[in-house]
Specification:
Chain A has ten helices and no strands. By secondary structure, chain A is mostly helical. Chain B is of the alpha/beta class. In chain B, strand 5, helix 6 and strand 6 form a beta-alpha-beta unit. Classes of the chains: A mainly alpha, B alpha/beta. At the A-B interface, helix 5 of A face helix 5 of B. Bound molecules: guanosine-5'-diphosphate and magnesium ion.
Chain lengths: ~220, ~220
């Protein structure tokens, strides 16, 4: 049961990792579509999971998880994310979230987190969140599938928390969306991943919204 | 051997800046306090940087950067995700990382000031993030504020009561407000300031120096 408990620990929103400040583009999307219905919001969350998480974050997460303590391999996945994320706001957000996540684990004394933090400091590694999660969760001995569940769940619950805080959906409406997304997360994680899968992400409304968000006068979330 | 150890320890501590939080309600004068402290700290030769936690984009960071008082690169902005409480208390990791990043960029930095985005009297700083923290209230908020015993006001290391120039205009009995504040804080320090005129700023700088820079 310990691997499962560790995954619950890492998926818990109470674990301080900076994730609460990132809206995964939702803030920008809601600014473009302020009258979004709950159904549309749910479809948007599903699209994030299918078209960004499953084809992008998950691949980076798994590669990092398998790279384990190999710092060069981790840096390579990290560079690939940097090169393939077109939108600067998402790139910078992913690095900042990664830095916060590392700061938490470094403060907890996790040896790999201390090494990775030094690498980021020295500029040898950029520290994208999916890569840091994969590496640290492997070091913390989570099970690989649990790590994927944990990653997808934190993205879904992060989207919902952001929408609740922006006043776009109610706290319980948000939980009904999250509940409806659980089978999708389960199915996505159950689908095996090719070793040579390429990182791909394209969600027009979120990409456009995130790109516009950088210039927004009034914004609460970092992306 | 002992000498080498001491030297290593001195080096290790030399790279770690003291971290000081500045919290308090929106509009109480947190940014104004930083603006007033900047020239005083500079005159005292303190090597410092600032992290702001704006609720809305980077307003305070931009205000400090444009002030011409400080090298704009020494001001970092953390967006608080609509949660000014969370970013200094439940999840201070964004701020911790921003502080680490400033330390890496400015190796000699001795002091990092963290300005909270500001919210109500309940906000407190996590001691994971800061070594010592200030809470700023202002007289225009009313002289009953100390008696409301908010955790921010009670637990901070230094309470600053700002805008004392406004006391006569808002019908506040300043002496009584300060006495109440000292009483509910059990004698922990309280400093009255008028940041428009610079009153009390040296005393705040003295308190910071004594508490975390070990200079008197
Ligand atoms: N009269 C007076 N106004 C002040 C004083 N300190 C700050 N202010 C004004 O109060 C407003 C809010 O100050 P600011 O520093 O932005 O507050 P913050 O939200 O706590 O950072 C600004 O318009 C300041 O000029 C003071 O001591 N006296
Ligand atoms: Mg301010």
């Amino acid at each position: 049961m310990l691997p499962l408990l560790r995954a619950i620990w890492q998926a818990d929103a109470a674990f301080p990792s900076g994730a609460f400040a990132f809206s995964y583009g939702i803030e920008g999307a809601l600014a473009l579509r302020p009258d979004m219905s709950l159904g549309e919001f749910e479809r948007l969350c599903a699209a994030v999971l299918q078209q960004r998480w499953a084809s992008y974050d998950r691949i980076a997460l798994q590669r990092a998880f398998r790279a384990g303590r190999d710092l060069d391999a981790l840096a390579a996945v990290d560079r690939e994310i940097e090169a393939s994320t077109m939108i600067e706001a998402l790139r910078a957000g992913s690095r900042r979230n990664g830095a916060s996540f590392l700061a938490a684990h470094a403060r907890l004394g996790q040896p790999l987190a201390l090494k990775l933090r030094a690498q980021v400091k020295a500029g040898d590694c950029l520290g994208h969140i999916a890569v840091m999660q994969g590496a640290i969760w492997a070091a913390l001995q989570l099970d690989e599938q649990h790590a994927a569940l944990c990653s997808a769940y934190t993205v879904a619950s992060g989207l919902i928390t952001a929408a609740v805080r922006l006043g776009a959906v109610g706290a319980l409406q948000g939980q009904s969306v999250l509940q409806a997304l659980l089978p999708l997360i389960d199915a996505l994680v159950a689908t095996p991943l090719d070793d040579d899968a390429e990182l791909e992400s394209f969600i027009p409304i979120l990409d456009i919204a995130a790109a516009r968000h950088v210039h927004a006068e009034l914004r609460l979330f970092a992306n | 051997m002992l000498h080498a150890l001491r030297q290593a320890k001195a080096q290790a501590t030399a790279t770690v800046a003291a971290r000081v939080g500045i919290g308090g309600p929106v509009g109480s004068g947190k940014t104004a306090l930083i603006e007033a402290l900047i020239p005083v700290l500079q005159r005292r030769g303190v090597d410092f940087a600032v992290v702001t936690n704006d609720l809305v984009t980077k307003e305070d960071a931009e205000r400090l950067r444009r002030s011409g008082l400080i090298d704009p690169d020494r001001v970092s902005a953390v967006e608080a995700g609509a949660c000014p409480h969370t970013v200094i208390r439940e999840d201070p990791t964004l701020n911790i990382a921003a502080g680490d990043e400033l330390e890496a960029r400015f190796p000699g930095v001795e002091l990092i000031l963290f300005e909270s985005g500001g919210d109500n009297l309940a906000s407190t700083f996590s001691l994971d993030l800061v070594d010592w923290w200030i809470f700023v209230i202002d007289v225009a908020g009313g002289d009953d504020i100390p008696r409301k015993r908010g955790p921010g006001l009670l637990r901070c290391d230094l309470l600053v009561v700002n805008k004392i120039d406004l006391a006569p205009h808002v019908g506040v009995d300043l002496d009584r407000m300060l006495a109440d504040a000292r009483q509910v804080r059990g004698g922990k320090p309280v400093i009255a300031t008028n940041l428009k005129a610079g009153t009390g700023v040296e005393a705040v700088a003295d308190a910071i120096s004594a508490a975390v820079l070990f200079r008197i």
